[in-house]
């Protein structure tokens, strides 16, 4: 009898049926929990910045292997055990149909799409095949849609609470070959887009804690409707989510999951010299017919990337502000790749917040409560004694985000900046550079216990 039980546990068909029952229960949970359960506490997770790639990871997997943080990503994906040891989603399920709709339209298969090679015949052939994407290389693969076990701390709005809570999300398996160019040790990607299988969307469906999440790179992320207490010099710790400006989030028909903001113009200012980028009319707008254009946020791109016509106009305006900014000893120097604009590094010091450098202003429209200003540390990068502008022209491989945007705002420009994604109201809160306000992401009250 014991031998019969042992055989049953290792029977591939029995395992497949068991896995399908588990994954079906998870899918049902995702669709029903928010409507039938009490609101659960928000989650918080610390982040890390990889010094080699300048990209960010989140360690929410139960085994703590980090996942690349990808604002544009539609899925959570990771390397997985062999197909006989992980659960699968039925290929005829609604969840599988959603996963296929969310697949990137532009990618190069890392394995030639040979998903079915070496798979054992049997019921597992009806496992849903998802298409995980590496946003750094633009490569993709195919792999089972499965259940991934996660862990994170909850928060009461002021402190990180312990112990961690376990939960599961629907995610995709991927081969190790897809991990190229990701931060060291990364096992996959945590997609944070507005699509229904992203990490924030699944957590909202499970926990019913409000359609919000926040990022404060490179320190932490919160999921759910929670205050974020950061220090101020005059008032001590305050809830920054109530005092920062907000801008509407736009929807792009070609990239419905992306976080687009309504930038209408770009300018540079320094010591009384103001220079607006001479952009063609509508250069930053989204083309509603093709989905091209617009300004989108990305945490999988280290620096802001501009379409060539936009970059030329920006570079001319920035140079103008430097030259006419009444600091006679400033001069352009040969650039170090990948940068295009580098200066001699002799910028004067400010009393409170680093070097005295031009302000770059993203002029927002469509109901934004304030323009978005980039200060020194949000764009300047020290390179071999020079200071280089961390804003780049588009390269020969095109834009790093789907939909051919006009501008991709990268991690350097988002760092040390509290970003609150309110998907109920479809708005983005942005603090701008916290160090200029004598605050910072690493000073959060969450981790003071």
UniProtKB/TrEMBL annotation:
GO terms for biological process: proteolysis. InterPro entries: Aspartic_peptidase_A1, PEPTIDASE_A1, Peptidase_aspartic_dom_sf, TAXi_C, TAXi_N, Xylanase_inhibitor_I-like. The keyword Transport does not apply. Keywords: Signal. Residues 1-37 form the signal peptide. Transmembrane segments: none annotated. Residues 52-431 form the Peptidase A1 domain. GO terms for molecular function: aspartic-type endopeptidase activity. Gene3D superfamilies: Acid Proteases. PANTHER family: ASPARTYL PROTEASE-RELATED (PTHR47965), OS01G0937600 PROTEIN (PTHR47965:SF47). Belongs to the peptidase A1 family. This is Peptidase A1 domain-containing protein. It comes from Triticum aestivum (Wheat).
């Amino acid at each position: 009898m014991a031998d019969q039980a042992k055989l049953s546990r290792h029977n591939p068909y029995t395992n497949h049926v068991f896995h399908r029952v588990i994954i079906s229960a998870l899918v049902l949970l995702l669709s029903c929990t928010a409507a039938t359960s009490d609101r659960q506490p928000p989650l918080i997770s610390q982040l890390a910045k990889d010094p080699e790639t300048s990209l960010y990871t989140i360690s929410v997997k139960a085994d703590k292997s980090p996942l690349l943080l990808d604002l544009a990503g539609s899925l959570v994906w990771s390397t997985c055990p062999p197909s006989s040891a992980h659960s699968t989603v039925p290929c005829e399920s609604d969840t599988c149909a959603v996963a296929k709709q969310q697949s990137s339209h532009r990618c190069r298969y890392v394995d030639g799409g040979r998903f079915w090679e070496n798979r054992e015949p049997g019921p597992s052939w009806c496992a849903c095949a998802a298409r995980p994407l590496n946003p750094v290389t633009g490569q993709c693969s195919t792999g089972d849609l499965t259940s991934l076990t996660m862990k994170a701390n909850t928060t009461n709005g002021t402190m990180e609470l312990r112990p961690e809570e376990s939960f599961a999300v629907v995610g995709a398996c991927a081969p190790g070959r897809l991990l190229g160019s990701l931060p060291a040790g990364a096992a996959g990607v945590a997609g944070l887009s507005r699509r229904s299988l992203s990490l924030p969307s699944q957590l909202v469906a499970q926990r019913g804690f409000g359609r919000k999440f926040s990022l404060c790179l490179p320190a932490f992320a919160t999921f759910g409707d929670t205050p974020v207490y950061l220090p101020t010099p005059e008032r001590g710790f305050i809830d920054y989510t109530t005092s920062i400006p907000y801008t509407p989030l736009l929807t792009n028909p070609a990239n419905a999951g992306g976080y687009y903001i309504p930038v209408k113009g770009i300018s540079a200012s320094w010591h009384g010299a103001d220079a607006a980028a001479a952009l063609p009319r509508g250069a930053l707008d989204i083309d509603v017919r093709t989905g091209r254009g617009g300004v989108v946020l990305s945490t999988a791109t280290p620096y802001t990337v501009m379409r060539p016509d936009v970059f030329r106009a920006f570079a001319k305006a920035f140079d103008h502000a430097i030259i006419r900014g009444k600091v006679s000893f400033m001069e352009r120097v040969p650039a170090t790749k990948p940068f295009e604009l580098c200066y001699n590094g002799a910028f004067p010091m400010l009393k409170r917040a680093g070097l005295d450098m031009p302000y770059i202003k993203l002029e927002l429209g469509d109901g934004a409560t304030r323009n978005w200003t980039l200060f020194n540390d949000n764009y300047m990068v020290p390179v071999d004694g020079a200071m280089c502008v961390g804003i780049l022209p588009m390269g020969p491989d095109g834009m790093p985000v789907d939909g051919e945007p006009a501008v991709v705002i990268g991690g350097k420009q988002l760092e040390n900046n509290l970003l609150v994604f309110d998907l109920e109201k479809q708005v983005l809160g942005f603090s701008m550079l916290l160090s200029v306000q004598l605050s910072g992401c690493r000073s959060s009250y969450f981790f003071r216990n």
